[in-house]
Every structure is written in C-alpha cells, then in structure tokens.
C-alpha cells in the first residue's frame, strides 16, 4: 500500500470530520449511511425511496405552484402515490419546464433561507438553474465522497490531477477577492484587509476544500492535433505530483496514453483513472489502463443532481445511489423492459427546496437489476450517450452515440471520427485516419451503412483532428432532434 493511501485513510476518517464539524455538516455520517444502504435488501431501499418520495410530492403539491397547477389540471394529487410505480401517472418534467418556472414558480417558499444556492448545469446545449439548500448540499458532499472512494484507493486528502475541458470552468462562479492560499486568506482576515462576513468565510471554506480536502492540481486542456509539447508538460506535472487519481475528458486520457506509448516519456503509475464530462468508449479502456498503469473507474452525475451512480471493483455498470434518487428509464413515456435503452428520468429525493420530479436529464441508458458479485444490492446503470446525440433509423430504432462510437473505434484504420446528421437524414462523416496510408473511404462508408442497416446518403471526408465544441467537450455524434 502506498504511503499516500495510508495518509488519505487517516485524513478522511480523522481530519476531515474535524474540519467539517464547525460547518455543522453531517456529510461523513451521511456517507457512512449511504454505504450501508448500498447493501440493504432491495425491498428496504424501495420502502425508503417511497417514504422520501411521498414527503417530496406532498410538499411539491402544497408549495410548488408549477407542480400543483400541472397535477390538478390532470386531475392528479400526491395522495395517489401508494407505491413507487404510481409515479408513472405523473407528467415528465423537461428542462424547459424548469427554465420557465425558475425560481418562484417552482421553489418551495417556506424553505427559503440564506443558505440557498443557485446551481447552474454545465449542459453542452443549454444551462438550467436549480436551487440547493444546505441540507441538500450535505447529501451531495456525502454522495461525492461515496462515489469517489468506494472500492478505490483514492481518499480525500490524497493528490488528484484534473484536466477539465475548459480550465476556466473550474473556477467560474467562484471568482472573488479570495486569497490564493488558506494561510493568506487567514492573514487577510486577521489584518482586516478582508472583512469577516458570510462571503469571506465561504471563501475560506472553499480554500480549505480545494487545498486540503480535495488537493487538486488543474492542468490546461490537451491538444489532439499531435502537438507534443503540452503532452510532455502534462507528463512532467504528473511525475511531480504523483497523483492517486487522474480525472480528465476521455479524449485527453486517450491522447495522453497514445503519447506515452510512442515516447520514452513515462508518467508514474496512476492508480485511479477517471474519465469526466462525457461517455467513455469501452474500446479505449485497455490501452489507457496499460499506458497509465492504473484502473479506469467511472461515476455518473450532473451539477443539478450530484453523483447518481458509481462503479464497483467489478467495473460492470454503475451502482445507482438509490437512497438519493429515483431513476426511471422510459421510451415514448412508457417504462422500458429491463436491459432496454430509454431516456433517464430522475427524481431528486433530497431536494426539498426545489422539487425535481421525473426530470428528463437528456441521457439514454439501460438498467440491470441482477445481483452484482460485489454484494451491493442496488441496480446498475449503463449509459448510452446523450439523447441529442442518438440517431433514429428509418425503422424507428435508436442508434445511441455509445453504439456508434464503439463501432468506429473498433475499426483499426480510424483514430477519431465525427458523424453529423443533416436535414433529411443526410450524414457527414469526418474521419481522422490512424495512419496516412491504406485509408479507403468507400470501404468505411459501406461497412458503416451495412452495420446501420439502411441506405442513407453519406459523405466521408478525412481531417487532421476533430474540433471540440464551445464548452471544450467533444461531440462525436450529432443527430437531428427527435421527439418521444
Ligand atoms: Zn458491484
């Protein structure tokens, strides 16, 4: 066992609760409870979900204008809820619903207090705002703790390196006059250069979080066009930091792994490699793990919902945090059969300040409820990409971004791709070839169409690199909007 891992364990069990105590946070005890709930008999978890859901829906009906009006128009009432399946009678909540009723039409006024925080989603297409109160944030802190440390050597206090798509986004929203270190902020407060108020205390808390609890080094985005100087710099930083965990966009992890493989430049072994911000193509797993000498671990979450699932050491799907959210998978508004792909609907069981019920989060996934060898009883989710990125075939079948990515990344002559669906279903395929020679555009076109099982107009072009979106993330599959 690494020394840093021992340090992390001691930090998390002794120092962290002591540091959180003055903030009255219950995060560490909530995290312990969440861990236990992962192994409860499934009937007990569902009973817990039902009691949370009942409280949430009663509150929504009484105090959230949006839900009350909508349900009453449809002749529905929260009293209808006798079992979890009864939630299916209630309408789905869209991003537009949240946007157009935010904040007064949807928030619960009786729970309004100074601790309310407005949280903006980091959506690639649109930003939605939600409200979290202190209690909700505490559950989220606990959920993050569970999602990042279950079956993993990573502990709070151990080093992490992060390469987000847009380094600015990490700091956006917390721009203030706060100092760069905990000691400087304390000095500034002591000398009255900074006034003692809510904001400066919250800055101090943020600094403690960033420097001691989640000791994170943020590196600039990596170029994907073969410029080695930034990659060399990144490997040097990894050698200096020796992180326990590396968090980065899947594309950056692959660029780094490719660079490590062809150069003599070796980073230290990185025990936990964690993709962020996008679906991870399964076919990249082995090469990234062997180049960076660690295990690839995934979790699923969003800004508005917090962590919703995490993988165990089996790395076969992600266990849902069922005590935190009620997750449904639907197609055409109806529940799908187990294992079938559909839209993900999320109900946040702990957000009483702004009820979010049956929220269409924009993802496609399938669920497996069969027992996992790890002993956790919770269902596992398999993500299939964004709804906006999925193609619909002529026969109405869904071709998810995950399936399309796996198809292209399994072709040895393709390094990267981007498939764009235009009006009338015309496809444009841009390809970055793995090697300059032996690339047959016609053969790729035929193979793809026969895999897709239909005749479509398609034009194939080769290119040097796929450009990221404005957010810094990559969209390999861009489909025309479809509705169900
Ligand atoms: Zn498991």
Automatic annotation (TrEMBL):
The keyword Ligase applies. Its EC number is 6.2.1.30. GO terms for molecular function: phenylacetate-CoA ligase activity. The keyword Membrane does not apply. SUPFAM superfamilies: Acetyl-CoA synthetase-like. Gene3D superfamilies: N-terminal domain of ligase-like. InterPro entries: ANL_N_sf, CapK_Type1_Caps_Biosynth. Keywords: Ligase. This is Phenylacetate-coenzyme A ligase. It comes from Novipirellula herctigrandis.
């Amino acid at each position: 066992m690494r020394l840093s891992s021992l340090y992390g364990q001691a930090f998390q069990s002794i120092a962290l609760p002591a540091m959180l105590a003055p903030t009255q946070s219950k995060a560490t005890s909530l995290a312990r409870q969440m861990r236990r709930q992962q192994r409860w008999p499934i009937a007990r978890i569902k009973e817990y979900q039902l009691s949370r859901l009942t409280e949430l829906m009663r509150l929504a009906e009484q105090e959230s204008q949006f839900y009350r009006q909508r349900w009453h128009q449809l002749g529905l009432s929260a009293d209808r809820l006798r079992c979890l399946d009864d939630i299916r009678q209630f309408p789905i909540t869209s991003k537009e619903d949240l946007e157009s009723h935010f904040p007064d039409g949807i928030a619960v006024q009786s729970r309004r207090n100074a601790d309310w925080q407005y949280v903006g989603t980091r959506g690639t297409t649109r930003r939605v705002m939600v409200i979290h109160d202190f209690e909700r944030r505490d559950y989220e802190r606990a959920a993050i703790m569970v999602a990042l440390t279950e079956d993993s050597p990573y502990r709070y206090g151990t080093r992490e390196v992060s390469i987000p798509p847009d380094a600015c986004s990490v700091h956006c929203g917390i721009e203030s006059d706060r100092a760069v270190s905990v000691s400087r902020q304390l000095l500034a407060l002591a000398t009255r250069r900074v006034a003692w108020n809510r904001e400066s205390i919250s800055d101090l808390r943020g600094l403690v979080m960033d420097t001691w609890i989640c000791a994170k080094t943020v590196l600039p985005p990596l170029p994907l066009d073969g410029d080695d100087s930034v990659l060399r710099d990144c490997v040097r930083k990894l050698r200096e930091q020796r992180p326990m965990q590396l968090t980065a966009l899947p594309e950056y992890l692959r660029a780094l792994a490719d660079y490590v493989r062809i150069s003599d430049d070796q980073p230290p072994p990185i025990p936990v490699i964690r993709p962020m911000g996008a679906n991870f193509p399964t076919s990249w797993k082995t090469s990234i793990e062997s180049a960076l000498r660690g295990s690839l671990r995934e979790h699923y979450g969003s800004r508005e919902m917090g962590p919703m699932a995490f993988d165990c050491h089996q790395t076969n799907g992600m266990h849902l945090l069922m005590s935190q959210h009620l997750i449904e998978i639907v197609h055409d508004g109806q529940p799908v059969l187990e294992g079938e792909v559909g839209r993900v609907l999320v109900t946040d069981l702990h957000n009483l300040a702004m009820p979010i019920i049956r929220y269409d989060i924009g993802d496609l996934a399938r669920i497996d409820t069969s027992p996992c060898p790890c002993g956790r009883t919770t269902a596992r989710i398999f993500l299939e990409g964004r709804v906006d990125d999925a193609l619909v075939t002529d026969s109405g079948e869904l071709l998810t971004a995950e399936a399309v990515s796996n198809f292209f990344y399994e072709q040895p002559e393709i390094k990267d791709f981007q498939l764009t669906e235009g009006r009338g279903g015309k496809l444009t395929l841009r390809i970055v070839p793995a090697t300059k020679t032996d690339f047959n555009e016609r053969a790729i076109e035929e193979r793809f169409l026969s895999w897709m099982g239909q005749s479509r107009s398609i034009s194939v072009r080769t290119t040097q690199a796929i450009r990221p979106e404005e957010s810094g993330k990559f969209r390999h599959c861009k489909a025309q909007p479809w509705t169900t």
